[in-house]
Design goal:
- By secondary structure, the chain is mainly alpha-helical.
- A two-stranded antiparallel ribbon has the order 1-2.
- It starts with a strand and ends with a strand.
- It has one domain: Transmembrane di-heme cytochromes, Chain C (Fumarate Reductase Cytochrome B subunit, Up-down Bundle).
- Helix 1 packs antiparallel against helix 2.
Length: about 200
């Protein structure tokens, strides 16, 4: 096994910037819901809106990068057998010392379960946040575009549900990144330096 660049510079920049913006959005969102009062309400609104625009801009660049570099192929779902093998590994084999069913390479960085998780993040959770957030933000203009009969409360509920799904993804992602590497904090180091064993 040799050390290889597993994560390119833009991947690492995108990863950490996205993580920071999502944490800011979650923190300011909880402020808006009254869970805490760290910021004044108006300040929390401004922080939330600015962070959301920055994140959407970052996502546009990331989509462009994925499409132009071919990295989008990392998210193509695996066969059911491979997914079942990964589920068995995370449920039992990881605790019993069983071998990892997926060999990570530069061309196949994501294991079958990660592919499913990231695909759902990119195709369901993120669009749910984008669309509901933009609808919520542009509520005063709904009647101008013919959607004045929609429920603002329903849109807010969708936005909040998508935010909780994103938070759950973040928690599981952190847990697995910090606890499943062969060396302590190995995946965290890889996402900082870009280097990992292949």
């Amino acid at each position: 096994m040799s050390q290889v660049i597993m994560y390119k510079g833009f991947e690492r920049f995108w990863h950490w910037t996205q993580a920071l913006l999502i944490i800011v959005l979650l923190f300011s969102g909880f402020n808006l819901h009254g869970t805490h009062q760290f910021f004044a309400f108006e300040q929390a609104v401004n922080i939330h809106i600015i962070s959301a625009w920055l994140l959407m801009g970052l996502w546009v660049f990331a989509i462009f990068w994925h499409l132009t570099t071919g990295e989008w192929k990392q998210y193509i779902p695996s066969s059911a057998n491979k997914i079942i093998a990964m589920m068995k590994y995370y449920a039992m084999d990881i605790f019993l010392g069983g071998g990892h069913p997926h060999h990570k390479t530069r061309k196949e960085k994501l294991n079958p379960m990660q592919r499913m998780a990231y695909l759902s993040l990119h195709l369901v959770i993120s669009p749910g946040i984008w669309i509901s957030g933009l609808l919520y933000l542009f509520y005063p203009y709904w009647s101008d575009i013919g959607i004045g009969s929609w429920s603002l409360g329903g849109i807010a509920l969708i936005h909040t549900a998508a935010a909780f799904a994103l938070m759950a993804f973040l928690v599981v992602h952190l847990y697995l990144a910090l606890t499943t590497s062969k060396e302590p904090l190995g995946y965290l180091k890889a996402m900082i330096t870009g280097y990992e064993q292949e």
